[in-house]
Specification:
Bound molecules: S-adenosylmethionine
Strand content: 25-35%
Structural class: alpha/beta
Radius of gyration: 18 Å
Number of strands: 9
Shape: globular
Number of domains: 1
CATH superfamily: Vaccinia Virus protein VP39
Helix content: 25-40%
Number of helices: 8
Distance between the termini: 31 Å
Largest sheet: 9 strands, mixed
Length: about 220
């Protein structure tokens, strides 16, 4: 799901690559063939240790690992920044599941990534994310959020739907939050002369949601 779009982006000139939330490092290892250096960061020290081990076993010299909360301990700017973000909005008691938990509406990490972009993305650089939009009272919360953050800022943003995800766990929590389902998205952001937003929807998803008459979990 991530390799294809990432390989398209890597056809451009990418020297400095930043992966936010590298986990065990599979993606960092893979993109290392395209860039001069990959800075692989994670908030979880154990994840970084595994990425380091994997780089060593595979004899990959151009991956640097840093413990960092998004950009907090990272210097410099990048040609490609990417992340398979922690995409789940979960009840409070699950917030120690850092692998998946992305805060309120899975937007906490997005805010940090987006707000640092002006400084961290090189002029011809690209940000590419895999993330989710929780549908709350029929409102697409990711689209609303992106509009709010980038409104009037010089960035071109593409939001592309990938698939629809039903909510199978924590039904009472989602019912209280008035969330019916979520949709996974690719997000691509580039610097541009002015603000531009493209929202690519898959008609099949909307048809399926309508035909299933998806309601709030009960
Ligand atoms: C969905 S996993 C992706 C792991 C790996 N890149 C992959 O695609 O398999 C999200 C990763 O983000 C990390 N993470 C969560 N919050 C973070 C933060 N604030 N800053 C940096 N990394 C974070 C988690 O520890 C986890 O490794």
């Amino acid at each position: 799901m991530m390799l294809d779009p990432l390989s398209q982006l890597c056809k451009q000139n990418v020297n400095e690559i930043l992966e936010i939330g590298c986990g065990a490092g599979a993606l960092a290892l893979w993109v290392s063939q395209f860039g001069q250096r990959v800075t692989a960061i994670d908030i979880n020290h154990r994840a970084l240790a595994i990425t380091e081990l994997n780089s060593k076993i595979n004899d990959i010299p151009n991956i640097v690992t840093i413990a960092s909360d998004v950009y907090s301990d990272v210097d410099g700017s990048f040609d490609l920044i990417f992340s398979n973000t922690p995409y789940k909005f979960l009840p409070e008691e699950c917030c120690d599941q850092m692998y998946a938990y992305g805060g309120y509406l899975a937007q906490d990490i997005l805010e940090k990534i987006f707000l640092g972009l002006e400084e961290r993305l090189n002029d011809d650089g690209v940000l590419w994310l895999l993330c989710s939009s929780y549908i709350k009272n029929n409102r697409n919360t990711l689209v609303e959020y992106v509009k709010e953050i980038f409104k009037d800022k010089p960035f071109a943003i593409t939001l592309k739907q990938i698939d629809y995800q039903p909510l199978t766990e924590y039904r009472e929590f989602y019912r209280q939050e008035e969330i019916s389902h979520f949709i996974r998205y690719w997000v691509k952001v580039k610097k541009a002369p002015g603000y531009k937003l493209e929202h690519i929807q898959i008609p099949g998803i909307q048809r399926m949601v309508e035909s299933l008459k998806i309601k709030l979990p009960s």
